[in-house]
Amino acid sequence: MNYMQKETCIICGKKIGLGKHYLDWAGNKACNHHAPDEMKMCVSCGRFCGPKSIELVKGEKLCPICQRNIVTEKQCAKMAAWIKACYKRSPIGNIEMVKLKSMSPEQMALASSGRTILGLAQGIGRDYTVFFYRHMSIVAFSDILAHELLHIWQYDHNINPDDLHCEGFCNLGSWFILRAINNPESLARMRWLEQSSDPIYGDGFRIMKHHFDHGGWNLAIDELKKNSDSRK
């Protein structure tokens, strides 16, 4: 919560005036009296959702900015090539060819047993596919793809860690790519990773980030392997 004067609430349009209010990463403000179910965040970029936002499924909303800037098929292919090139220049190395398939909110909810997820990696033999939520900004897509590609990398290298290290390692990949993008949305997403209270995704990320900070990808990979059982 921040303290400012005479600001307009993105949710109700009223002047906030003197007092505390909520502030999102993009500078949008909301009155502090709004109930939690009114404080919807864009499923793609994490901005507050105002009256012009649209509802997708299960109460998920998409802000007007993301409505205008949904990632295109051409952008997906370009960003996928760039992310793989970033990994190839690091100790991660080459990642196998991956098919990309966008899914509607309804399809993604069905594939994830009703959970709210934005990406899903699948491997059948060495045939890999990343399914991703159709309604995403290019930064959100890059975040999700960077994560899912490291699931595929683990599978391809016969590494089968516990969930904590598996998801933490994949989130380290998201952080790595978001840092390279280096714009306001990517920096906000980096903060969400760093501040996450999730016992698997948040704690796992901080464990892997600690090793990365002290020895780069090589030390993070060593930590991943130490907590892995080879697939039979």
Q: How would you describe what is shown here?
A:
It is globular, with a radius of gyration of 19 Å. With 232 residues, it is of the alpha+beta class. The chain has a 3-stranded antiparallel beta sheet with strand order 1-2-3, with no helix packed on it. The protein folds into 2 domains: 68 residues, no CATH class; 154 residues. It contains 7 helices and 8 strands; from the N terminus they run βββββααβαββαααα.
Short synopsis of the structure:
By secondary structure, the protein is an alpha+beta fold. The protein has seven helices and eight strands. It has a three-stranded antiparallel beta sheet with strand order 1-2-3, with no helix packed on it.
Overall morphology: globular
Strand percentage lies at 5-15%
Residues in helix, % = 40-55%
Low-confidence stretches: 1-6
Q: Give me the strand/helix succession.
A: EEEEEHHEHEEHHHH
Determine the structural class based on helices, strands and strand pairing: alpha+beta
The tally of domains stands at 2
Across the major sheet, the strand order is 1-2-3
Radius of gyration: 19 Å
> How far apart, in Å, are the first and last alpha carbons?
50 Å
Could you tell me the mean pLDDT?
A: 90
**Overall number of strands:** 8
User: What summary fits the major beta sheet?
Assistant: 3 strands, antiparallel
Classify the oligomer: single chain
Query: In DSSP terms, counting alpha (H) and pi (I) runs of 4 or more, how many helices?
Result: 7
Helix and strand arrangement:
Blueprint: E1 2-3, E2 20-23, E3 29-31, E4 54-55, E5 61-62, H1 64-68, H2 73-88, E6 98-103, H3 105-111, E7 119-124, E8 127-133, H4 138-156, H5 163-181, H6 184-195, H7 201-226
Parallel strand pairs: 6-8
Antiparallel strand pairs: 1-2, 2-3, 4-5, 7-8
